Amino acid sequence: MSSDTVIKRRAAKAVSVGGVTIGGANPIVVQSMTNTDTRDAAATVAQVKALAAAGCGIVRCACPDAEAAESLRTIVRESPVPIVADIHFDYRLALASIEAGVAKVRINPGNIGGDDRLAEVIRAAKARRIPIRIGVNSGSVSREILANHGGHANAAALAESALEMVRKVEDLGFDDIVVSIKSSSAKTNYDAHMLLADRIPYPFHLGITEAGTPASGKTISAIGIGSLLMQGIGDTIRVSLTGDPLNEVPAAYDILRAIDLLPSAIRLVCCPTCGRTRVDLPAVAAEVEKGLPALETERRLAGKPGLRVALMGCAVNGPGEARDADLGCACGVNEGLLFRRGEILRKVPADRIAEALFELIRNE
Ligand code: SF4
Relative to the CA of 275, which ligand 1 atom is closest? Predict the structure, then answer.
């Protein structure tokens, strides 16, 4: 990978969530949220396990009532990954979920029922040594802050609201904090983080709220999350998509892979094809793409670095266009010319290209 593709990350405080560290120089953690009824522990545990198997590092569960808080006890016990309780309005549910053993609590300090109640939640989190995620969104900005910004929950209002909440929690002698600001506008989201990033030391949880369906929500999430990650901002991400949360995990990985923030990732660089292409490149690309997840897992388990693999339709521009690739193939008439870091290796017939690339990847 060339040095100009390496993103310099903002140095955020490292915060441990049940053994998974967010911030510092740690890899960006992929999160998701269950959509089962939390009171149904068996269904929720099954979904948590499926999310964990897909690569989700931390899972959040809604905690809307006392029965859900009690159910969290079982979910926490049986989950292979840290569980975060999502609390709105009722501080007693935050206390009950902390008591149930969750690894983090997501609250909005402004809607938890007053300063005394917030202090009680913070005391409980401190006693259990668990962090608090301070969540701010367009709907949670106070009337006073809205008034200061012409009645709009714009980026400045969101940043001000988040800062106010952070100071409130800090004033209680607590700094085990993760901050999330969420807007359904990628631009507002971006601007709010840019306004806040230098003013607080805490890690950011990134996501575009109400992003949409799996078909449409991935694009706005890629822009909203990816733009900040490229500025070095963001330590954990969630791609919120309507429906099955299992769709969220690969979408998050796609964003991280696209900007070289996924350790051990194999990024396939592939030309669009044009009038010079003399090989069925889409078929070769599909075959290569199919084999990459297993190879990527092998690399991750072996602690190997990421790789960029180029598949180019022609030999004239191929190796040149793919100069930044670690490995690649530039195709001719029904054949491919393999290369490693710009150095030509050998020719293979078109139907052997995928296999040959897999072998080269394994040897890296
Ligand atoms: Fe066309 Fe060759 Fe460029 Fe592919 S690499 S788009 S075949 S010129």
Answer: 1
Task: Measure 221 CA to ligand 1 centroid, in angstroms.
Answer: 30
State in Å: Cα 335 to ligand 1 middle: 14
Per-residue pLDDT of the chain (364 residues; tens, 9 = 90+): 555 668 899 999 999 999 999 999 999 999 999 999 999 999 999 999 999 999 999 999 999 999 999 999 999 999 999 999 999 999 999 999 999 999 999 999 888 888 999 999 999 999 999 999 999 988 888 889 999 999 888 999 999 999 999 999 999 999 999 999 999 899 999 999 999 999 999 999 999 988 889 988 999 999 999 999 999 999 999 999 999 999 999 999 999 999 989 988 999 999 999 999 999 999 999 999 999 989 998 998 899 999 999 999 987 765 666 667 999 999 999 999 999 998 889 999 999 999 999 999 999 9
**Amino acid sitting at position 144:** E
Contacts of residue 314, defined as CB under 8 A and 6 or more positions apart, other chains included, come to 271, 276, 277, 278, 330, 331, 332
What distance in Å separates the CA atoms of residue 168 and residue 309, rounded to the nearest whole number?
A: 49
Question: In whole angstroms, what is the distance from residue 92 CA to residue 112 CA?
Answer: 9
Q: Is the CB of 321 under 6 A from ligand 1?
A: yes
Rounded-to-integer distance, Cα 182 and Cα 162, Å? 10
Tokens of 41: 């522990």
Q: Is 265 in the pocket of ligand 1 (CB under 6 A)?
A: no
Paired tokens of 98: 């902390």
Q: Compute, in angstroms, the gap from residue 170 CA to the centroid of ligand 1.
A: 56
d(CA 332, ligand 1 centre) in Å = 11
Question: What is the C-alpha separation between 97 and 229, in angstroms, rounded?
Answer: 31
Q: How big is the chain by its Cα radius of gyration, in Å?
A: 23
Burial class (CB in 10 A: 0-12, 13-18, 19+), 352: middle
| Bridge partners (DSSP) listed for residue 58 | 31
Q: What residue spans of the chain are helical by DSSP H?
A: 41-54, 66-78, 91-99, 115-128, 143-148, 155-170, 186-196, 214-230, 248-258, 281-301, 318-321, 353-362
Query: Which tokens in the block code for residue 126?
Result: 């401190």
